[in-house]
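Subgroup meeting minutes
Present: P.N., E.W., G.H.
Scribe: E.W.

1. P.N. recapped why we're keeping a running log of single-chain structure predictions: easier to compare across weeks, and new members can see raw inputs and outputs side by side.
2. G.H. added today's entry (371 aa).
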Amino acid sequence: MSDTVPNPAIAVVGSLNIDTQLSVPQLPETGTTVAASSMSSCYGGKGANQAVAACRQGASVSLIGSVGTDAGGSAYLEYLMAQGIDVSAVQPYEDTPTGRAYICVNPAGQNCIVTLPGANAYLMAERVAENIAMIEAADVVLCQLEVPVESVVYALQTANEYGKTTILNPSPLNPEFPWGQVPIDFLIVNEKEAASLLGYFVESTAEAPTIRSQMADLGIGTLIITRGSEHTFAFSANQALKVPPPQLSAVDTVGAGDAFAGTFAVHWAQSRNLLGSLRKANIAGALATQREGAQDAIPTREEVDDFGKAPAPEPEPEPAPEESSPEYSEYSAEGEGEAPPEESWDEQPAEEGSDLPTSDSEDDAEHKPQG
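Output recorded in log:
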């Protein structure tokens, strides 16, 4: 992995979808029909979502992917270019539609999603190889599994050969992925995906010794498990962290995981600080639940950096000058100046072995770093 860089380059290999979102009173179950109260369309796809998230955090982002030659695909590329993303490696394919996703969202912001791969299924390893210069120029290579597995494997292997940081968000999980054969620096999964990979739900950082053994078998350097409004877990060779996210009432959780992944990629490249990067990613994921849609909800760098800071104090009004006073002149109002230091919603994640305070919970107290 390369050194820290102030303005990182992120190469994303992944999907582009046009999302159709339906607001429903409850998520449909097997054999049931649910009437939607509203419908909207927006841009999505995990690859493009994470590319937008990284771009909004200040990175230089290139996207390797596929769209159809339909009107939706052309408009999508124009939109991404306007966002500042290099889409020169996004290939339009004839006789196939741009990928689609159909998303049901209930009043609690929870969702279920059905995807139609469309042109995403045509992103072959050969296409990634044609754009190997983007991987060579990147600091981080970020992948998901909404495109063919062989393309993801090729991208990760190539990134490893060039010494780049590799991040995989293996969603949706694909049984064909060759775990253990491709080294992955960071694997980002939600708690259900982690349970599928490990065979059990992770409940505590005290499980680190067992998890590390499985990580070695799977070829994972650091395992990050997002858990919604609960603490994010992270396990590396010498750290076991639980990092609290902001507690916000969700409006729509569709793009939260992608906001987390793209934000983490940028902040890790800039700082090489696992705890700090997780904190920023947690903030981005939480803020992404405050607006509807996937990419529209992804926060900017300013929004992430300013979250939790106390507002600057309002300047006190200037007293009215006396007309007869010879001292009449302009002056600075009292109370103006720099805002107070950033306040955190929770400064006690379990980062054993650091100088940070830790809580008295079992998770925080039991594990010491190894390695």
